[in-house]
């Protein structure tokens, strides 16, 4: 409580107990000694890399010297107004020393510690103490937000196009490699078939030759049977002279 004498602060009392004042000459003004909350309106600031950000911050503060507070600011609303100017100035200066990425992610705590310390030094002459200053929210200005989202969308589309192109190129390579392998396999299979066919023909010729050497009559009979089968298949008709030896094994 602040004791005023003829409108001027003359003393303050902080603790509980029995206190006196001169009637008609002195009166008492009561001040809140609790930790108070100040919340700033969103404001636009510029980062080190020339990016605009809309910052929404708050501060916790209290009166530590009631007499000095009353002499300089007198009321809580005036203190809030003064804090608004000081906090915004320090936030603007501090954020201007860091990039947007640092502000929104990696170094925010460091930035706010600097702001808290600087604002606390600035409010000491008013009998105040700053307990903490924090950024509640960081946004992009509406016009910047649209532009950044547009760039992000274009970058994603560029990446997608690149991936599709790489996929098509890889698909063409795989198809070409498969075609080459198929051609090689078909050629190898054809070569193997020719080799086997040649071996089969050679083996058949050897068998026929062996049969001819061992039994010429039986060999002639087998060859005639093969000729009959080839000539008379599918109900075919054969015309020949009466003395032809072609049908001698059918007599």
UniProtKB/TrEMBL annotation:
SUPFAM superfamilies: Band 7/SPFH domain. Gene3D superfamilies: Band 7 domain. GO terms for molecular function: peptidase activity. Signal peptide: none annotated. It is found in: Membrane. It holds the Pfam family Band_7. One of its GO terms (cellular component) is membrane. One of its GO terms (biological process) is proteolysis. Residues 1-152 form the Band domain. Keywords: Hydrolase, Membrane, Protease, Transmembrane, Transmembrane helix. Belongs to the band 7/mec-2 family. HflC subfamily. This is Protease modulator HflC. It comes from Fundidesulfovibrio putealis. The lineage of its organism: Bacteria, Pseudomonadati, Thermodesulfobacteriota, Desulfovibrionia, Desulfovibrionales.
């Amino acid at each position: 409580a602040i004791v005023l004498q003829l409108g001027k602060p003359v003393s303050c009392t902080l603790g509980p107990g029995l206190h006196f004042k001169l009637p008609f000459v002195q009166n008492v003004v009561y001040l809140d000694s609790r930790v108070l909350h100040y919340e700033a309106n969103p404001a636009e600031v510029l980062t080190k890399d020339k990016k605009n950000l809309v910052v929404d911050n708050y501060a916790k503060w209290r009166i530590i010297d009631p007499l000095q507070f009353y002499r300089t600011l007198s009321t809580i609303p005036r203190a809030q107004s003064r804090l608004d100017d000081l906090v915004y100035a320090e936030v603007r200066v501090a954020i201007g020393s860091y990039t947007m990425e640092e502000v929104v992610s990696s170094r925010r705590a460091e930035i706010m510690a600097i702001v808290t310390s600087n604002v606390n030094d600035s409010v000491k002459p008013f009998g105040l103490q700053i307990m903490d200053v924090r950024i509640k929210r960081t946004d992009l200005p509406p016009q910047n937000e649209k532009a950044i989202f547009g760039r992000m969308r274009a970058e994603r589309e560029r990446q997608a196009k690149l991936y599709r192109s790489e996929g098509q190129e890889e698909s063409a390579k795989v198809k070409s490699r498969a075609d080459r392998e198929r051609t090689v396999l078909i050629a190898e299979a054809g070569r193997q078939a020719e080799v086997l066919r040649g071996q089969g023909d050679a083996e058949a010729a050897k068998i026929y030759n062996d049969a001819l050497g061992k039994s010429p009559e039986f060999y002639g009979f087998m060859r005639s049977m093969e000729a009959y089968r080839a000539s008379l298949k599918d109900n075919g008709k054969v015309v020949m002279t009466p003395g032809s030896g072609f049908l001698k094994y059918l007599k």
